[in-house]
Write a structure and sequence with these properties.
By secondary structure, this protein is an alpha+beta fold. The protein is built from 3 helices and 11 strands; from the N terminus they run H-E-E-E-E-H-E-E-E-E-E-E-H-E. Helices cover 27% and strands 28% of the residues. Strands 3-4-5-6-7 form a 5-stranded antiparallel beta sheet, with helices on one face. A 4-stranded antiparallel beta sheet has the order 9-8-10-11, with helices on both faces. A two-stranded antiparallel sheet has the order 1-2.
Amino acid sequence: MKPPSLSFPQRNTQAGLSLIELMVAMLIGLFLILGVTQIFINNQKSYLFQQGQVGNQENGRFAMTLLSQELSKAGYRSNPAKSFPSGAGLGCSFAEDTSVIAVSPTALCVRYQAANKNDVNCQGTALSSANQDTITAPYSKQINPIVIEKIEYDAASKSIVCTSGTVAKQPLVTGVAGLRFEYGSGPGDLKAVSTFSATPTDTVGAVRYTVLMQSQGTASVRDDATTSAALNEWNTRFGDSLVDSNQIYQLVQGTTMIRNQMQ
């Protein structure tokens, strides 16, 4: 009789990952991480580009509206039958019946008479109580108080600023890389514009303004390394040498005829 054989239960053994399998898994994971990171970077650049464009468009529209609004006031008289007397203010000397003074290609002075007691200047400041008291009725044929404003470009803050009265310069539009005024003038007896120049010799009858908007921030938002077409056009037109900072640039331009200076 044979003795019973001893049997032991078999164990389910599992082998670990080999070094090659681990390296392959890590390589696949690395490719996935790189892909997700690249998608994130592309989406971020696209977002910054769109935000830069939207910001330029909004600021550009506001700059055009603001300049048109202030220049449209220039030359307003409460009594059109009476001429503007000569005068001075903010470093600008106005001859009789002159409403706009060309200070430089980036600065000008305008003057007008307040239309009513609720008028405000380019800084949003209301007339003084004494000036308000001189206006007895809105748009009446009297000599209302004269308001003088100076609008110019401030390169340090990259903004269009305004000065009026004794109040210091106040930024009106930010995100501006450049501003140029071109003054339209012609024979004074005809009151017609025949040429535009940065240094007019006759009475200014129109003002053409060009603004170079620049997206704000320090992040690079353009993929290509070529100079912006808008910046190239600006440098070519005005003989400037602005350096491309890889931001979004946009040119906006408008023209305003000066009240009481044109036929």
